[in-house]
Amino acid sequence: MAWTYLFLAGLFEVGWAIGLKYTQGFTRLLPTALTAASMAVSLGLLGLALKSLPLGTAYAIWTGIGTIGTAVLGIVLLGEPATALRLACIGLIVAGIVGLKLVS
Questions:
Q1: How far is Cα 28 from Cα 24, in angstroms, rounded to an integer?
Q2: Looking at the predicted structure, is the pLDDT value of residue 14 above 90?
Q3: Residue 27: is it exposed, middle or buried by C-beta count within 10 angstroms (0-12/13-18/19+)?
Q4: Domain residue ranges of the chain, discontinuous segments joined by +
Q5: Cα 103 from chain centroid (whole Å)
Q6: Which of 46, 51, 65, 75 has its CA at a distance of 20 to 30 angstroms from the CA of residue 86?
Q7: Residue 104 per-residue DSSP state
Q8: Cβ contact 12:58 at 8 Å
């Protein structure tokens, strides 16, 4: 169950990272509230995952999921560039997450 908590925590991290863009400096109430809620849920789920997963592994995977999801949604939603080098670097992060999962 800890891995499920960790995966969901990573997804909520993506939610708050993307949400920050839509708060417009915390001047828009609904996006700000949703972003704050996503932060709280993400940290809560990370805390549950840390009950049984190693800290270094869980934190690296949590931030990796957040990084990958935010980068991909930045490309899809915000029109950020999808260069070959950028995609290759995202692939390296994915490889790191898979490697950490395999050795934990």
A1: 6
A2: yes
A3: exposed
A4: 2-103
A5: 21
A6: 46
A7: -
A8: no
